[in-house]
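// run 5 | inverse folding | seed 20
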């Protein structure tokens, strides 16, 4: 397994984690596909979404795999007027990550990060480790502490 920026950041911060590898299907990069291929509970697999607020500031949201982000709820939790999804063409230049391999850990640039409150129901959750085919399994409390994450109800 090759170390990603996300995993190197976890190592530097001395945050314990495990990794889960899976075969990538380029035609299906969904969290459901990840859960099925890894045998993990879809509610523990958190997908990372990148959005922009009305001032074009980056916002990162991690939500359960089966959920859909509620833009109004996220904006309210973030204390902004509105949020919109980051155009896919801007994902790599703004975050350093590609679709299907975007992690909340190791994103380049300034951003605020939010995590759906259901993550706290689990001892460990899975988030992308920064590349397709690799998930990092770690404590949501460690993730919250490390990234200064705000939790809340972010989904429909």
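// decoded
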């Amino acid at each position: 397994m090759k170390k990603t920026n996300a995993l190197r950041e976890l190592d530097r911060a001395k945050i314990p984690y495990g990794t889960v590898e899976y075969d990538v299907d380029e035609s299906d990069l969904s969290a459901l596909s990840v859960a099925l291929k890894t045998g993990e509970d879809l509610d523990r697999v958190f997908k990372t979404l990148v959005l922009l607020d009305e001032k074009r500031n980056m916002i990162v949201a991690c939500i359960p795999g089966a959920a859909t982000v509620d833009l109004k709820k996220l904006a309210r939790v973030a204390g902004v007027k509105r949020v919109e999804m980051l155009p896919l063409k801007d994902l790599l230049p703004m975050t350093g990550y590609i679709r299907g391999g975007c992690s909340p850990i190791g994103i380049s640039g300034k951003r605020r990060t939010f995590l759906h409150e259901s993550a706290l129901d689990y001892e460990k959750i899975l988030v992308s480790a920064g590349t397709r085919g690799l998930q990092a399994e770690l404590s949501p409390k460690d993730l919250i502490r490390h990234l200064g994450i705000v939790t809340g109800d972010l989904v429909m």
